[in-house]
Design a protein that fits this description.
The complex is a heterodimer. Chain A is about 35% helix and about 25% strand. Chain A is α/β, with parallel strands linked by helices. Chain A has a 6-stranded mixed sheet with strand order 6-7-8-3-9-10, with helices on both faces. A 4-stranded antiparallel sheet of chain A has the order 2-1-4-5, covered by helices on one side. Chain B is mostly helical. Chain B is built from 14 helices and 2 strands; from the N terminus they run H-H-H-H-H-E-H-H-H-H-E-H-H-H-H-H. The longest helix of chain B has 27 residues. The chains are: A alpha/beta, B mainly alpha. At the A-B interface, helix 2 and helix 3 of A face helix 7 and helix 8 of B.
């Protein structure tokens, strides 16, 4: 799939007219686990309304960065801003209410609930204000329609396949009304047909809901073809960033990612 | 919210009437059995409320029972409080202990395993502290004025059992209940979905500590004598868990069924197979957990699902766990 457009133009804006607000600002974030620096002075920005891919070899610190942003792990140093507001020391449930939702690497929907109940949790607890039961149900159903899972609303999550479980998790995240959505390897383990469906949903989040997406993925074809911008982590540090085609051509990235055998990224 | 069927209301009303009238025509022996049974119902439901709904297994839930019993005894003997006030004091003291323990045991640094071990240890610590405190009667215990009418204990405990069962029933229909269900499944995911897990756990823990306290106060009076080894007997905590697992953890009536079942078994076996019956209970729980983790309620649900499939002539479900 040829992808020559830059992230400014995906939304029909002119190249160069980059007056987007910064959704997420990570400033010098460091996370130590004992002697291990899982994140070492990371500084990055995620502009509003785009899909930013976060890639890097295993152990690069991608998921740790997500945990730092969402407040699951308190950071050792640095600062994290969401639309200019400092969220560094907040607890996860407060951060969600300010507009960051996430999914988990291993897929963690609530296994003891139905599909609808999972989404309801997001509606009830993740929003800024308290909503009525009727409103929560209708909103949840809207979200399930959006991700094309409304027909399974009454089913227990345990009866779903891998893709649908991931989508439930995404729907639960969407139900919190996020401005920024963190997706952690939502494509891992999916077959090619499901892969396409999942990518379509992620694109629709940006194009129809205007949600900013920060997305960790190992499936290069999918993320290079979808993301507007790519950030590469390696050993807890930012190695490179740029448009997908720039990152693909970056010799340093290719070397650390694939070794020196000359295989090129994507 | 969906309305409740009139048939169910009628059934609940009849059951309540039967429970109210039941002790009027039976022997003191049966009344005594019923008091013990109702004590266990209050205990299992209070365990079910917190541990059953959140997955934080308390191995020493009986400590609140002991605290209640001692709170009552001290209020009556040292402070000469009237009985109703002493019962209230039992609940309040158990609540205060729950607030203190909850704020320590349910902090962000604690996980389920620590919680379990610490509750177990705390029960033993309290037992030792009471046994070594002169003002609390040390290990000689405290003698109380006797409770002359068994019916007082019966109706009091029946009331508590009803209140906590209704509480759990309402909880399960509320968003508070949904939050606890999320905590049970995955605490980090619950937190990142916007649930303030600490607050929900804490509130539930405190309420679940007050009920055993209220029951413990009454039972102390009913026994008319308490010592640390009775009030903080670990077997109470263990029986509670066995009853819950036997009946069905996290369900509304499972623990009650488990309590009835095991109280009967205790009554029968403890006279015929003295000292062996706890072994049998342990075995029974192991068998239940291996073969039917949902307890008696799971069997019941399976049976009902099969019956309704038969009634609708639907094909047998396959491959769905």
């Amino acid at each position: 799939m040829a992808n020559t457009r830059g992230w400014e133009t995906r939304q029909g804006r002119e190249v160069g007219a980059v007056t987007r607000k910064i959704a997420l600002e990570v400033q010098g974030v460091t996370k130590n686990f004992g002697g291990l620096k899982a994140l070492n002075d990371i500084t990055m920005e995620v502009p509003e309304g785009v899909i930013v891919g976060l890639i890097g070899p295993n152990g690069a610190g991608k998921t740790t960065l997500f945990n730092a942003i969402t407040g699951v792990y308190p950071v050792s140093a640095g600062r994290i801003n969401l639309f200019g507001q400092d969220i560094t020391r907040l607890r996860p449930h407060n951060i969600v209410r300010l507009g960051i939702a996430r999914t988990f690497q291993t897929g963690r929907p609530f296994h003891n609930m139905t599909v609808l109940e999972n989404v309801l949790v997001g509606c009830y607890f993740g929003g800024k204000r308290r909503i009525s039961n009727a409103e929560a149900v209708s909103r949840s159903m809207e979200i399930l329609e959006f991700v094309e899972l409304a027909h399974r609303q009454a089913d227990p999550v345990t009866s779903l396949n891998l893709l649908d479980r991931r989508i439930v998790e995404m729907a639960r995240a969407l139900a919190t009304g996020p401005r920024l959505l963190l997706l952690d390897e939502v494509l891992a383990g999916l077959n090619p047909a499901d892969l396409g469906r999942a990518v379509e949903i992620i694109k629709r989040l940006r194009d129809r809901l205007g949600i900013t997406v920060l997305w960790i993925e190992h499936i290069m074809k999918a993320i290079m073809g979808t993301a507007d911008y790519i950030i590469v982590l390696h050993y807890g540090q930012k190695l490179a960033e740029g448009r997908p085609e720039e990152v693909v051509d970056n010799a340093e990235v290719n070397e650390t990612y694939f070794g020196e055998r000359g295989v090129k990224l994507a | 919210m969906a309305g409740i069927e009139p048939k169910k209301i009628a059934m609940a009303g009849l059951a309540l009437l039967a429970l109210v009238l039941f002790p009027l025509g039976v022997s003191p022996y049966i009344k005594a059995f019923m008091v013990t049974l109702l004590m266990y119902v209050v205990m299992v439901q209070s365990w079910n409320l917190f541990s059953g709904c959140t997955g934080y297994v308390s191995l020493g839930h009986g400590l609140f029972f002991g605290v209640g019993a001692y709170g009552f005894a001290i209020a009556v003997t040292t402070f000469k409080a009237p009985f109703w006030a002493a019962l209230l004091a039992a609940g309040v003291i158990a609540g205060v202990v729950a607030v203190v323990l909850g704020s320590v045991l349910l902090s962000t640094k604690m996980n389920v395993a620590y919680f379990s071990v610490l509750t177990l240890g705390l029960n033993e610590i309290l037992k030792a502290v009471v046994a070594n405190t002169k003002e609390l009667g040390s290990s000689y215990g405290i003698t109380l004025p006797p409770l002359t009418n068994q019916l007082i204990a019966y109706y009091y405990l029946l009331g508590l059992a009803l209140i906590i069962t209704i509480l759990i029933w309402q909880l399960k229909r509320s968003r508070h209940g949904l939050a606890l269900k999320a905590v049970f499944a995955d605490e980090v995911a619950a937190e990142t979905a916007g649930i303030n897990t600490l607050t929900y756990k804490f509130q539930t823990f405190v309420v679940s500590g007050i009920f055993p306290g209220l029951a413990g106060g009454m039972i102390g009076w009913y026994w008319s004598y308490i010592d640390p080894y009775m009030a903080f007997d670990l077997i109470i905590s263990f029986f509670i868990m066995e009853m819950v697992f036997l009946g069905g953890i996290g369900t509304l009536f499972g623990p009650v069924i488990g309590a009835v079942f095991m109280s009967l078994a205790i009554e029968i076996l403890s006279t015929n197979l003295q000292n062996i019956h706890p072994i049998l209970f342990g075995l029974a729980v192991i068998i239940v957990i291996i073969s039917c983790p949902g307890g008696i309620m799971e069997l019941f649900d399976k049976y009902r699902a099969r019956a309704s499939r038969k009634a609708l002539a639907l094909p047998k479900q396959e491959g769905v766990s």
